[in-house]
Amino acid sequence: GIVIVLPLINLPSESEYNQESPGYYTNFAGMQGIEELWTALRKSPPGRVLVPTSSMPLRIKPFGHTHIMSLIPIFTDKEIIGGTPTMLTPMSVFLYYGYARDKVANFAESFDRVSLFGMRYEDIDEVRLHKICKHLDITTVVVWMCDQQIVDFFLNNKYFSCRTQAGNFLLFDIKEYSHNLIETNSDMANVKLFEYKPDRIRINILNASEGAEMLLKVSYYPLWQAYIGKKKMEIGMDEAGLMKVKLPKGKDYVVEFRYENGDVEKIGSYISLFAICMIVMMGCYQIYLKLYRPV
Fold it and tell me: pLDDT tens digit string along 11-62?
């Protein structure tokens, strides 16, 4: 499922947005050209979108910022990296530190406009950044035009080209790469992705030699399970926090990744089901009292 967290902190004052205004999203979207950004991203090449910062400032005031970029998947059906301070996931940790670790020890905002994948902007290795973007299946970068240092960096980077301006944002396309969610070690395996859903991914293994490995460019999480038929496979995690598995030697078999509920999720489902049943029973009882209670 998708959880939407209120995308702002410290709303603008009434002098900026009076009570007759249509609302926060409409005002901010109108000022920044958010709808134009959504439209441009829908036309972007297949692949993920990189948002180099976790937030955008609403105004020049401490902690006045918005995480509106976290809405990109909802309005454009594009997966994103960055744009929100999800500090405990392997992918976000890799975004801030450049390698996967247990958690981010600092506020995500402390890395904004300072570093990207553990490299300070003034010291970023362009070749390494290009390699990381390909490894994470990033094909588009969205940069707010007011972030001048980040704009200048990508404008002067030979591995990225500025495709268009959408509102107050610039969209950069990565060069020398096409969308690809699977990697294997050299020519030891021939694989084909044929189903990709939020909770299920199926990959046809056309041929795999002894010692073949497959990288799935999806962030590792313990609730992901991998199967060949009914046999469970061990899932590893690479340095970027992505899932990888060892492929058994063979031809024409399917590896299926399934996102399965754990004990906590199952207990939550049972509690929700019990609560729904209680509500239905109470409703039926109230109807019974109204219909059959003696006058």
Answer: 444 444 344 445 556 666 677 889 999 999 999 999 999 999 888 876 544 5
Q: What are the backbone angles phi and psi of residue 54, rounded to the nearest 5°?
A: -85, -15
Q: 206, 194 in Cβ contact below 8 A?
A: no
If residue 52 lies in a helix (H) or strand (E), which one and from where to where? Answer: none
The per-residue pLDDT for range 130-187, each reduced to its tens digit, is: 999 999 999 999 999 989 999 999 999 999 999 999 999 999 999 999 999 999 987 8
Say which residue the tokens 């993920």 belong to: 48
User: Secondary structure of the chain: what % helix, strand, coil (to 5)?
Assistant: 30, 30, 40
Contact between 216 and 242 under an 8 Å Cβ cutoff? The reply is: yes
Dist CA 107 CA 86 (whole Å): 10
Q: How far apart are the first and last CA of the chain?
A: 48
Q: What is the pLDDT of residues 179-221, one digit of tens each?
A: 999 999 878 889 999 999 989 999 999 999 998 999 999 988 8
Pinpoint the alpha helices (H) of the chain.
Answer: 24-32, 34-42, 72-76, 90-97, 126-135, 148-155, 263-292
**From CA 6, how far away is CA 275, in angstroms rounded?**
26
* Bridge partners for 287 per DSSP: none
Can you tell me which residue has the tokens 């002894």?
Answer: 210
Alpha-carbon torsion, ordered 165, 170, 176, 177, to 10 deg: -100
Q: What angle do CA 150, 152, 158 make, to 5 degrees?
A: 105
Tell me the CA distances in angstroms from 175 to 141, 157, 159, one per residue in order: 12, 10, 5
Residue 214 forms beta bridges with which residues?
Answer: 184, 245
Contact assessment for residue 111 and residue 118, using Cβ atoms and an 8 Å cutoff? no
Predicted TM-score (pTM) of this structure:
0.78
| Number of other CB atoms surrounding residue 248 within 10 Å | 14
**Which strands sit side by side in the sheet containing 169-174, from one edge to the other?**
80-82, 48-51, 138-144, 169-174, 160-166
